[in-house]
Amino acid sequence: MNTLKTISIFVVLLGTSISVQAQNLRVPQITIAQDVQDRQPIKKDTAFSANIGSVYCYTLIEGAIDSTKIFHVWHYKEEEKARIPLTVAAKKWRTWSSKSILPSWTGPWRVMIEDSEGNILATKSFTIKN
After folding, report:
1. pTM of the full predicted structure?
2. Virtual CA dihedral for 114, 123, 58, 77, nearest 10 degrees?
3. Which residues share a beta bridge with 98?
4. How far is it, in rounded angstroms, from Cα 93 to Cα 107?
5. Cβ atoms within 10 Å, residue 44
6. What is the 3-state secondary structure (H, E, C) of 66-120?
7. What is the predicted pLDDT for the residue at 10?
8. Would you state the pLDDT for residue 15?
């Protein structure tokens, strides 16, 4: 019976550690760009032409205690177009995702950075124009 108590305590402590970790995540940088090269965003902007092909969201995440997941959630107007899971594996971590853009998808876009519990850590808006 003592073994069961020990396992229960371990699970509770593990759950607490994960919750605390998610609360410490910060996003000091979120950039929309035409590309990422050598781990840096290239041709940063907030407006892109409809024939761009793809757009990148580059994110600097700080505060992770251990390996954790975040999500880049891409929205066109009010419709979610993609939810991309990314791993953060250090206290200071650069990561990025890309989204293919159809020429007809002109108008407002945004990328929301969410932690593993669905909390919004940051948001960046941009526009696709004719």
Report:
1. 0.81
2. 100
3. 56
4. 31
5. 13
6. CCEEEEEEEEECCEEEEEEEEEECCCEEEEEEEEECCCCCCEEEEEEEEECCCCE
7. 36
8. 40
Length of the chain: 130
For residue 50, with 0-12 CB atoms within 10 Å meaning exposed, 13-18 middle and 19 or more buried, which class applies? middle
CA dist 45 and 107 (Å) reads 15
User: Which one-letter DSSP state was computed for residue 37?
Assistant: E
Rounded to whole angstroms, what are the CA distances from 115 to 10, 11, 24, 83, 118? 23, 21, 10, 12, 5
Q: Which residues contact 25 (CB under 8 A, 6 or more apart)?
A: 61, 62, 63, 64, 68, 70, 88, 115, 121
Model confidence pLDDT, tens digit, residues 56-88: 999 999 999 889 999 999 999 999 999 999 999
The pair of structure tokens assigned to 52 is: 């761009």
In the numeric block, the tokens 């876009």 are attached to 109
**111, 128 Cβ separation under 8 angstroms:** no
